[in-house]
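Protocol step 4 of 6: structure prediction from sequence.
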Amino acid sequence: MDHLVKPLIVAFLCLAVLSGCAKKEPPPPPAAKKAEPVTLTIGLIPEQNIFKQLERYEPLAGYLSRKTGARVKLKVLPRYRNIIDNFRSSGLDGAFFGSFTYALAHNKLGVEVLARPVALDNTSTYFGLIFVRRDSGIRNLKGMKGKRFVFVDKATTAGYLLPLDYFHEGGVGDHRSYFKETYFSGTHEDSIYDVLNRKADIGAAKNTIFERLVLEDERVAKELVVLATSPRVPENGLAVRGDIDPSLTNLLKDSLLHMHEDPEGREVLKRFGALGFIETKDEEYDPVYRYARKIHLDLSTYNYKND
């Protein structure tokens, strides 16, 4: 038996040595972590109350997130008066700017406009209104003397630049002394309701908000009358920072411009209240720049915060 056992022991020892010396396979590499999507924070100016703004824009943000692969997040800016400061402090990547806020942001922040919506009536512009109550007896600038005037904000075309130009054309240099009181409501909607509810005698706002309220509240058409209008300017357009990755900027722009060709996009547009989006360029804001020059307003140094 010994002559059989010894060879077996030697064989087992050799196998043990060989298996210990065998090259071990390295463990499989850990699975690569999926890259987190880029987040784009887009600001909304306070035209209406925050709930109406979000109800309108959230489906659009979701659609753009799915089409671009970025996480598009919305932030409603609390007021016009510090929109530039808020843009910086909130780390915004872009915003749906009104015409004057875009002109300011373009000059102060270097943002570039991409696209703007086309409304259901096939318009992509808006204009400013000056309005009073029908029973006020006010029919012109002369009749406004000693009354209460409500602006929207110093950073709005319809809610500030239009009235200033209207006063300028009528020979009123210092509107503060011409009126009994002037103040800022903060939103176009609030300016309309302040006149409707007799808090102010005269107000200024943009026509698109006025027309939307006409459909929601029959008192607006029945009790208010428009005395003056401004030239048309581009509807609120999406503008973004110039240092965003150009490929992402182009994808964002293309998603907006072609969403009317996509069934999902058409459904989102329906909820947004638009037929589609059209490409928009800085030169389309020339009426705003002309307004500013006419009243000697330097956009690069303009103090847009309400007094």
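Step 5 (inspection) to follow. Residues 7-23 have pLDDT under 50 and may be disordered.
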